[in-house]
Amino acid sequence: AMKAAVLIQRWYRQYVARMEVRRRCTWTIFQSIEYAGEQDQIKLQNFFTYLMDHFTPTNSNQRDLISHIFTEDEVYKQTELEYYCDHETIELPESYAGPHIDFPLTAAHAAALVEAFRHKQQLHARYVLQLLHETLKHLKLLPNINRVSTCFCEEITICGDLHGQLDDLLLIFYKNGLPSVEKLYIFNGDYVDRGKDSIEILLILFAFLLVYPNEVHMNRGNHEDYIVNLRYGFTKEVMQKYKMHGRKIHKLLQIVFSWMPLATVIDQKVLITHGGISDTTDLDIIAKVDRHKVLVFIDASNSFFTGECPRREARTTSQGRCVALWKRSWRSVAGKWASPNHMKMASSPCPFPNQTRNPSMSVNLITLNGSRNPILYLRKVCWPRLKIVDILWSDPMHQEGCVPNAVRGGGCYYGPDVTEKVLSRHNLQLLIRSHECKQDGYEFCHNRKVLTIFSASNYYELGSNRGAYVKLGPDLIPHLVQYQVSRTTRKLTMKQRVSRVERSALRALREQLFSHKSDLISAFEKYDKNKTGRIPLNDWATVVESVLQLGLPWRVLRSQLVQSAPEGLLEYHAWFHDLAIEQPTAEHVHQSLLETLYRNRSNLETIFRIIDSDNSGLVSFEEFCQTWKLLSSHLNMEISNEAISDLARSIDFNKDGSIDINEFLEAFRLVDKIHYTERE
């Protein structure tokens, strides 16, 4: 009996270990693909900046089209759009059966919104604009850093990313109670994108913010950003739900986002901010920044590095990141400070504080007849801007130091020594941040001085992770509460849960492999010296990582991705047939163009949404061709006009000379071959 028990125990431990390996591989796949997408997003933002300097328009309308979206002046002018709040001009039809609200709001109004959204009702645009206008007036009165005390309540509840998942917010309120005078809440950013109910989450939280201005606090996240919303779904959601007034609502929301506070401090001991910190984080500086004038979505990872500063040094110190930002900023500085008749070039050292003077780091600066106005601009604007990027985009790491966050493409990685330094400088004892999905909904690191809290359960796939929130009492000891919205996962075994999430992750990974087919084949051929069409599996793993650069354990994943490799050799041309198939609409389009499209669908959609200025969801052939011209400029590749025209004609389904954006993107969605076969 004892031997049998030992054997069963040993078998079970091996079984759990195998499940854990599969679970971790799956998690790594999801996170690698997610962060690669964020890198693409920041590269696209850099491309827009580059575009303004290098794109040659064929007519004045084209430059106006791009310019009105991406110049800083246009963003600053958004403060003039408060006239969009003229909700009284919008009539409320008699047939409207949704919730009604009056101002000033009461707790009953906010609770009624919760119930209405629970039953899938929609708030009328008239009320939405009025609610956003009142929220904006309130946010303008708030400091960059809110100060909260536990003296007047039993505990404070802190929630992390929700990402448009209304069911998670409803479950939190069900388990923990609605906000009230006795029930304080701090929401730590990333309310929107990815999920389908982002606008409902915002309206609920804004309503409670107005009812309980001292008990509800909302920090800004990195997804409360115009360009990020274009890519990850929030813009599309607003336009679809509020078609006639969607543009007004969306523009007003962007202003509201720009006025959101950046951090919250509890009892002068606990700092709460979305991403985290860096080695240069100074709360006194952050408190003085004009947050509504700061464009937080910039690349601090040196991707447009053009000066003489050594690249290695620029990527390993925060000062180097500042130098990279500093060098990239001269064109915009020139436009702000100098006319062509007043500019002259000179050599000057880096203007940032504490920067070591080094002749090799001298760069060409723009001066105004000897004036240092550009340097003053960089000190007052770019340096604080980088600090805000750091607190919204950064992640903790186990190693000591502070380095650029090359995985996300923005912010930095900060180690336990940096955490200790910043907390000690401000006499703090704990940093609570969000920004990263964790399987258990939370994670402690840096000697339990950093707590990551993530409140969107089932983030990657049903059953992929739990959500969590944390409660702090006067003793400031974290009390964590975990949950998972779906009841389905409770009925599944461990193996079923892991297998379900694993299938979803592998499907996304196969899409990545298929979209890089040409690059992979070229790399495979370099290893195939004898032109046999076969390579060893070890070489396969090396090539796949070198092309995709996802940092995945390819040798562990080999059994899931490679079905057949006789004698340890992979027939790499046949291998692609087992990955994915394309929809029939793409049959007559050149293969290299297909792969470019698959690989850049998110970038294309972002550009399409921008070009579709009237938000009709349709683009003309001319706009479609212009989009591809922008993309080819971004990718530094040649795409013939004939290929683009063939592509346009193949997806003009009703032959009316215009292209539906959603149908276009769906036409080039990769379909998993196994599921496609089952459906047939």
TrEMBL record:
Stretch forming the signal peptide: none
InterPro entries: Calcineurin-like_PHP (IPR004843), EF-hand-dom_pair (IPR011992), EF_Hand_1_Ca_BS (IPR018247), EF_hand_dom (IPR002048), Metallo-depent_PP-like (IPR029052), PPP_dom (IPR013235), PPP_phosphatase (IPR051134), Ser/Thr-Pase_EF-hand_contain (IPR012008)
Catalysed reactions, as listed in the record: O-phospho-L-seryl-[protein] + H2O = L-seryl-[protein] + phosphate; O-phospho-L-threonyl-[protein] + H2O = L-threonyl-[protein] + phosphate
Pfam families from the UniProt entry: EF-hand_7 (PF13499), Metallophos (PF00149), PPP5 (PF08321)
EC number in record: 3.1.3.16
Required cofactor(s): Mn(2+)
Keyword list, A-Z: Calcium, Hydrolase, Manganese, Metal-binding, Repeat
Enzyme class: hydrolase
Protein family membership: Belongs to the PPP phosphatase family.
Protein name: Serine/threonine-protein phosphatase
Organism: Polyodon spathula (North American paddlefish)
